[in-house]
Task: structure prediction
Amino acid sequence: KIKNDVPWIKNHDHSTQKEIADWLTLEIKDFIAYISPSKEEIELRNNTVRKLREAIMELWPDCEVHVFGSYATDLYLPGSDIDMVIVSEHGGYESRNSLYSLSSFLKRKNLAKNVEVIAKAKVPIIKFTESTSNIHIDVSFERTNGIDAAKTIRSWITETPGLREIVLIVKQFLSSRKLNNVHVGGLGGYSIICLVYSFLILHPRLSTGNISPYENLGVLLIEFFELYGKNFGYDNVAICVEPDNVCYLNKKYYPDLQGRSSFALSIQDPSDPSNNISRGSFNIRDIKKAFAGAYELLTNGCYDLDTATYKQRIGKSILGNVVRYKGAAR
Amino acid sequence: CTEKQRRVYCQTCGSTRHFTDRCTSIWRSYLTVENANRKMGLPTNIYCYNCAEKGHYGDECPLERTSRVPNLDGSAFSGHNLPQQLR
Result:
């Protein structure tokens, strides 16, 4: 039942750890090191962004090209796309005309293939694959909220050790279950970050300074799944992540945060109190179930390995049951 | 079958809801920070995951539980999980 053929275990055996929680902590660190981008991958991404920015500025010299999302917050997994946004003083680049002129310009310059212009959506975007790097790019227009959110998230990451690690694990977990796509009710990156951030700030051991998160990643990961998979009162409780005031709000008093159904995840947008960041995640039922499943898998893995002999433990993985990494070998 | 006749009892925590080999203490163990003696106050951000009220954790909520998943053995968000000197 316990996995033993996961790639991040190679040359990183922790089967002699006395505490199972320490074993899991070490495995989380190995997994993070394994999926973290290499120097070459980082350079490829940076060069791709630079090349696109230069090209777009050539077409529209009066615009600014920003990156946001996981590329800007350093929370991307192998194969993640890059989110870019074009903003200008006059705010005119969201028109249908400019969308099509940019897309044909990128095609003409041989920078983009598989170009899709989604002009009718609430947030019009161009999606394409950059020709040399094969990285997927999303370009949106004249919206600064993504840039602001990236700034907020970067400050959380520096102030909150453990946040980056747990977010990456939860992201990988949800993506392997196809529950990370907001267009089909999944949980978006910003929502995942808010859930982990709120959990870490409100945790009894962390808020008292009794433990350091980085040395307790294993137990904290299980307790994250325990909170949002088993206990969190999705019907009544909304999450607030305002600077200096991370707390819960009773949905009853915040009509803006109530969704169409009472069983819904509500996260108040720190830069717009009337906006619910997770309002698109209508499939919260399956997400909660998946979190509870992750809790069961991890705790059962711990129980089984705790009673196993050292010989049976060699080369085994606790995390492998939960994060299935299916990408190319790294 | 002898399995069914065994009374559920955990030798680690005394609970009658799980056997010793399924005790949450197997994984809910923390590596605490060295200078545990320094003065610590109750955290100001105690919030309830069940009713959103300030001042108690969800495990101790006096209101009816909204989640349908049972919480038999207690969770991280309990007054019992505060550092020893604050419980």
About this structure: The interface with chain A takes residues 21-22, 24, 26-33, 36, 40, 43, 45-54, 57-59, 65-67, 69-71, 75-79, 81-83, 86 of chain B (CB under 8 Å).
